């Protein structure tokens, strides 16, 4: 990453009045949460998305899917926000209008002090009934599922149907209010900072594209090449915990 690129991005950030920060799995990588598509450590290298992250998968084998998500929820509970999450909260505190849009299902932005991240893909911490949508509470600190261990889902207190993870699976619509808020913020911002996302999953990947189309500058923070390289005006090739604190210094 060139020093001048970093300075250029920092000065854009200093001038911007309306900012969107758009984050993906790379944001939490340095906290110890695995990404999805990284060549060696990505979850989809070890697990089959079709067998775990679709409504069909849950229907076919609820205990397999529930156990896998409980393993991820437990893993996230043991991690802490990294310097990148803290820098994002700092951006929000400084900029008059800042909206944080995340594809992540962890709660590390909240724990770093971000008040109201827009969760496009739901949350590991918001399970709900698979039939009537009633929110379900799932106690923490109980059994610690290991990767691949089956665990039958609890039953809804209202209708007794199986409780499901509160995430958006492949083939499911994104929460309408979250998607609308993200599109609206992207269309009206002057700077969008995209962090740690491959830009391959739609419709989330539209968000930086909407910002660019409506005239915003797009800054990307990612150590690798991504599908958003073309959309970005400035590419900062580094990790979230390294680059973001330097941007707000
Ligand atoms: C839908 C939640 C319709 C669950 C996830 C258009 C074209 C082609 C296909 C489609 C299309 N439109 C829709 C589709 C289908 C599909 C899709 O996009 N498929 C793709 C993959 C081909 N989309 C859907 O199915 C969506 N729904 O379209 O519904 C509809 C409409 C109405 C009514 C009914 C239906 C729903 C998609 C939601 C999927 N849910 N997650 C869970 O977590 O288990 S997906 C999953 O990918 C993740 O959760 C994540 O949120 C998302 C994006 O991944 P990234 O965050 O980008 O992570 P990735 O590993 O890919 O990349 C990591 C990046 O970090 C890399 O660039 C790496 O270099 C970088 N990095 C690594 N270390 C660091 C770092 N960066 C910074 N610092 C570091 N230290
Ligand atoms: Zn129910």
- Helical proportion, percent range: 25-40%
**Which ligands, by name, code or SMILES, are bound?**
ligand BV8, zinc ion
Q: What is the terminal-to-terminal distance?
A: 17 Å
Counting DSSP H or I runs of 4 or more residues, the number of helices is 11
CATH architecture of the largest domain: 3-Layer(aba) Sandwich
Helix and strand content put the structural class at: alpha/beta
The string of secondary-structure elements, in order, is HEHHHHHHEHEEEHEHEEH
Fraction of residues in β-strands: 15-25%
Task: State the shape.
Answer: globular
Count structural domains.
Answer: 2
List unreliable stretches of 5+ residues. none
What is the CATH homology-level superfamily of the largest domain? Answer: TPP-binding domain
Rg (CA only): 18 Å
Mean pLDDT: 95
How many beta-strand elements? 8
The order of strands across the largest sheet is: 3-2-1-6-7-8
What is the CATH C-level name of the largest domain?
Answer: Alpha Beta
- Biggest sheet descriptor: 6 strands, parallel
């Amino acid at each position: 990453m060139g020093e001048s690129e970093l300075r250029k991005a920092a000065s854009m950030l200093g001038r911007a009045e309306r900012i969107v920060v758009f984050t993906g799995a790379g944001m939490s990588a340095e906290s110890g949460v695995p990404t999805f598509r990284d060549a060696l450590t990505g979850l989809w290298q070890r697990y089959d998305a079709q067998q775990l992250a679709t409504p069909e998968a849950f229907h076919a084998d609820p205990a397999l899917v529930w156990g896998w998500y409980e393993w991820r929820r437990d893993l996230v509970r043991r991690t802490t926000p990294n310097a990148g999450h803290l820098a994002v909260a700092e951006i929000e505190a400084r900029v008059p209008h800042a909206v944080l849009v995340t594809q992540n299902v962890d709660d590390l932005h909240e724990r770093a002090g971000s008040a109201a991240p827009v969760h496009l893909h739901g949350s590991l911490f918001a399970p709900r009934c698979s039939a009537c949508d009633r929110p379900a509470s799932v106690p923490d600190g109980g059994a610690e599922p290991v990767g691949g261990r089956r665990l039958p889902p609890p039953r809804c207190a209202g209708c007794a149907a199986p409780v499901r993870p509160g995430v958006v699976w492949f083939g499911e619509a994104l929460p309408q209010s979250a998607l609308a808020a993200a599109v609206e913020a992207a269309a009206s911002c002057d700077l969008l900072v995209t962090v740690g996302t491959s830009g391959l999953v739609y419709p989330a990947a539209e968000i930086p594209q909407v910002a660019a189309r409506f005239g915003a500058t797009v800054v990307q923070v990612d150590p690798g090449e991504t599908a958003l390289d073309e959309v970005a005006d400035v590419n900062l090739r580094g990790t979230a915990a390294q680059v973001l604190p330097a941007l707000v210094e």
